[in-house]
Amino acid sequence: MASQRIPESYDPLIALLEDAADGARDHGPAVGLKQNTETEIRADLEALAGRLAGPGNVPPALPGLKAEWNLAKSGKVSGGGGFRAAKNAGRTVASACVNVLKPRLGNQWNNAWQAAGFTNHSLEIPENPLTLLQQLRAYFTANPTHEKPDLAPGLHATADACHAAALAISSASSSSNNSNSGAGGAKKALEDGIAAGRKRLTGLRTELSQLLGSDDERWYAFGFERPGDPETPEIPDNLTGTAGAAGSGNLFGDWDDSRRSESYRAIVSDATSGAKIAEKLTNESEAHFAGLPLGQALKLTITAINSAGESRPGEPLAFTLN
Asked: Residue 264: which of 243, 244, 287 has the closest Cα?
């Protein structure tokens, strides 16, 4: 019995919702679909994937929960980067202030440095220098003659510079926190949308099981395997081969995708003895062989593979390379 598992991840879930909506449109009325119609399925699909605006912007465009999550992720990265940049800039200002004050307070930490905010027996600049900058601002406000503006273009050891750097860190921290919160909310909304889509498809599968026979071909139109299908893949069909340049021994094989397949085995063998000459495993419905013998009658066979097993070989392709 073939699996009718509802996907958990976004991409295959969207593909199944698309198929289910099309199947409901094309066959829903004929099979008597009542609870999980095209309208209901497309509502869950559009909530996740969004939609383009209609004529005259009716209905308006809908970005979709996945797009909102992507935007929130981008904002989170940007917010985090801005916070790091503000902290680094603040550390630069604080370090400049230390160098300016060393001739007055000493090259090593001592009690005099506590007045400038260094209260931990060290002149090390913390990773987030917000509170240190605030204390340096207070020190320079109380000792304006100790300030040194214009140390370098845009770099000042002043109360105003410490205040601006601290303010920038505080603002960037708030933006980063907001972006983190927004990303968390967008992620939760996306997960809820995926859960709603899976619930819709589960309901559709249950409803169809009451309306369609286990071998009814219309299961495929809704994106599901038929309950009566085996779990192993279908046999690959429509195998074709294209020879490479003369003397190259190259062959390019192509075939139709097989239902339920996860990968394929392509085997080139001697057409007379059946002896295997070359074998390829591929995730795509194509395979390239190089260095095959010339002037020898060969055949190419394809089998489809999934976790349940391997199909029988499809119709072999006979060929001879020159």
From this structure: 287
